[in-house]
Amino acid sequence: MTEVKGFMDPHEVPTVPGTEGWEEMYSYYLLFSKDDPKRAEYESSRFWFRDNVHLPDPMYPLDPNLACDMNFSGIAAIANRAFSLPNFKSYDPRIVNGYVYVNSVEPEDPEEMQKRAEIFEPRINYIFQNWDKYYAGWTQECDSLLEEMRQLEFAELIEVEPESIMPELYKYYPVHKLYSEYLKLWDIMVRMSQQTKKALLPSYGADLVFIENMRNLFPGISDTAITQIAQGFESKLFRAVEELQKLAQSAFNLGVSGAILESKKWEEASTKLQETDGGRKWLEDFEAERYPWFEMSTGEGWQKDCVSWNENLDVPLGSLKNYLNALKEGKSITRPKEEVLRRRDEITEEYRSLIKNEEDAKAFDSLIGLTRMVASASEDHSIYQGSWFHNLYDRKLRQIGQLFVNQGILTDKEDVFLFNRQDLDCVVWELYTSWCRGVEPAAKYYWPKRIERRKEIMDRLREWIAPPALGIVPETIESPTTIVLFGITPELVNSWWEAGTVSEEETKELKGFSGSTGIVEGNARVCRSVSDIGTLQPGEIMVTPSTAPTWAPAFQIVGGCVTDMGGIFCHTAIVAREYGIPAVVGTGYATARIKTGDRISVNGDTGVVTILERAG
Amino acid sequence: MAVNYIDYILHFENVDKSSLPLVGGKNASLGEMIKAGIRVPTGFAVTTNAYLDFVTEAGLTERIMEVLCDVNPNDIKSLDQASSEVQALVNDAMMNVETERAIEEGYSFLCDRCGAEKLPVAVRSSATAEDLPTASFAGLQDTYLWVQGIEQVIKNVQKCWASLFTSRAISYRIRNGFTHEKVLISVGVQKMVNSRVAGVMFTINPTDGDPSKVVIEGNWGLGETVVGGTVNPDKFVVDKVVMETNEKTISAKHIKCVYDPDKGEVVNIDVEQDMQSKCCLDDREIKELAKIAKEIERHYGRAMDIEWAIDKDSSFPENVFIVQARPETVWSQRKKESVLGKKSGYQLLMEQAMKRIKIAG
């Protein structure tokens, strides 16, 4: 009998002590369950990987509504129902102990795949052949959705409607706006979730086929070499960072660096800046730039703790300080874009000149043309989705939360995220009915103690070290989106499986992908979220689940990076290369096995992290 | 005919590819590289004129042809017999005075330049038909290492001349249609690199013909163990476009070739225990070698097979030397087949869309 290699069965995951009853926090369809034998069999026989790239922390009850329901359905609607991708249908999510695990649902019957291929081919060709028009239209639609969302208003409930409604009472609905705005919120979100994927899928497809064929042409070519060739630089991501750098330079030139450097909080800095002409000028420039560029999320925006720069100006303040310090030392803070582009073109030309076969050279030209054409789509999708859409969504939810606070249902508007979607539907509905009637909503006494219990559970869940995978070990993984989006490859999965057989104390080495070349040794600092980056000391090595655009200031201080998740296009790899520091991504276990203060060596060439000496 | 003895030797600096008929492929190549700014150990070539005049004045030409026309190439005994006869003829003949004097002048010039009384040199054959890109005569004639003093130099030059007539060389020429008179020989006299580490490198991956790589092989001591294949060397595969080392294979290096002053010759000795599994090149040496390989390839406009050595007696990067470079002969002759299967960009895209996760069982 052959032994099937497997991770823990998803139904066997033990409950974390003190979190009994955690299941009721989440919608029933998100749980692993043995109720139905067919479903149980399906769950036990699949490969479930933890989504550490987008969702490193335990889920607030409302978070899966966005991250799982909206997001994965959005991907599926486009990939499965619009494009009929031959090798992929959707990602199917589950939550256990508060963490999200994902299984890839794919057509398995070759005939079905063939039928789908016949549908897919003309459709993807159409998109690539009409890309400019498609992309322009896409951007416009994104902006229009943002505007729709901005218009939503969850206003204070009023005692009596004003006299002015009487002439139009025949078509005016008192109190109704609360409910209709709420429904609109979800409607807009469903569309937004689909919208971003329309750019993402073509761009990932183009990138993946490019990578694969570069590896065929030049066996053993490194991931970093490939990304150096493929990368585009016109995206909004870089634009946002450029704006921040411009502001730093301008503060330096205006002589107001002091006001910024000496302040611990934004409020302080703002007050100091008001006191001088230069400072006031700078604040004017700042106001001009902050929308939309400072809608940057501090995380990927999937979880409610990822606020935008605009909502927490202390975050960009930190970046400004780093840039100003560099300027004081006479260093340049801008990534020299022209230089980077020139180098990119040089390298590309050199590889191309090595292709001696005519047909291969033509194929190379067409693939690189494609991948360059769609290059900014991937990063723009990230900005629209991660930063702008999600931040607006969060802000509207907080407005709802404020309403609940006003009605005595919650004590803190942040707690709105402790409702799951079904709970929220109920509470908003009850608020409507009870406000119409002039009675107290039952929610006022039903929810507070349940909210408190949920907070307790969340605290406990944060301490659990969630395994990187559950279920079976897959034989191969080739589907484009799983590899690029989540950074999962068979080698990585095998190394997780092997690491799982080694205890924490015995772990001497972790294997991942080469994210950025070079070798560095230093003290590790485990940063679970962006708020931890303030603790980083110069030259330390940052060990994190993954990173996101506003972790940029960290990259200027650290000597190297190690992440749990991520593939060759992940944020950490891209930015670490920009800053010229070694990075190993996708280790699976780094934040679990490495402790702050451990002395580690990071080899960005081989993708190996070695624990040289344990702290203390 | 009287020839000015200056034409008997030519210093490498004064040699380039047009000198091939006079100095042979190896030496012409060294001159080319010096012109291209590549670091090559200094030296000079004893020209084909010198060989020709020697063979003529010693009256050897007819006698050699006499022996060789009776040879049966398929009979080893016949080959060996002819070979030892001819080699004896060459070795025993007296070198003419002008040639001796030319070599003497060349050698003392080297000694002065390098500040050594009896400079150790490598005496290497360089036949004019040897390094043609379509045939590889490599290894058919001899090389003598760590030769010191003018008497030894002269003796070994003559031995190189004689090695034109080893059994292997005679048989190779017959089988490949090269006539004996047309193959002239030049001999290079080149300063020895006191190698800490040495080896070979190719400007394509010899395993699969991938043109984006430089593949370097190295071992402790002189490069002969790598060239001769007597040891499993360390291997480094470098992507020469982005200058990244993609692969590093450290082998157990048991033997190295070094000069033994007591024996007065080079010998193979055991490598110290702790050095056997130690990587023989550091990262900057690897990058420097890859950089030089790229320059050589660019200069020649084709894939190259290069011998290198890193000198113990000087410091990085001046201690990185190229000892030899010749055109690669295997992959450059093959037709450039499509790697991607003659598919267009869109075809490849569609193939990608068919790939998926496979669940075992």
List keywords for this structure.
heterodimer, A: 616 residues, alpha+beta, four-stranded antiparallel sheet, globular, B: 361 residues, six-stranded antiparallel sheet, five-stranded antiparallel sheet, disordered C terminus
Description:
The complex is a heterodimer of chains A (616) and B (361). Helix content of chain A is 52%, strand content 9%. Chain A has 22 helices and 12 strands. Chain A has helices at 37-44, 63-82, 110-129, 131-151, 176-217, 223-230, 236-254, 257-261, 266-274, 277-293, 314-328, 337-353, 358-373, 375-406, 421-437, 443-446, 448-463, 480-486, 490-500, 552-557, 571-579, 590-593, and strands at residues 47-50, 90-96, 99-105, 469-471, 509-511, 513-516, 519-526, 541-544, 560-563, 583-585, 599-603, 608-613. In chain A, a hairpin with a 2-residue loop joins strand 2 and strand 3. The longest helix of chain A is centred in the N-terminal third of the chain and has 42 residues, at 176-217. Chain A is globular and about 80 Å long. The two termini of chain A are 46 Å apart. Helices cover 35% and strands 23% of the residues of chain B. Chain B is built from 11 helices and 13 strands. Chain B has helices at 20-35, 48-57, 60-69, 76-92, 97-114, 150-162, 167-175, 224-227, 273-276, 283-300, 345-352; strands spanning 9-11, 43-46, 121-127, 143-147, 185-191, 195-202, 213-220, 234-239, 244-249, 255-260, 265-270, 304-311, 320-327. In chain B, helix 4 packs across helix 7. The longest helix of chain B has 18 residues, at 97-114. Chain B is globular, with a radius of gyration of 23 Å. Classes of the chains: A alpha+beta (616), B alpha+beta (361). The interface between A and B is large, with 63 and 38 residues.
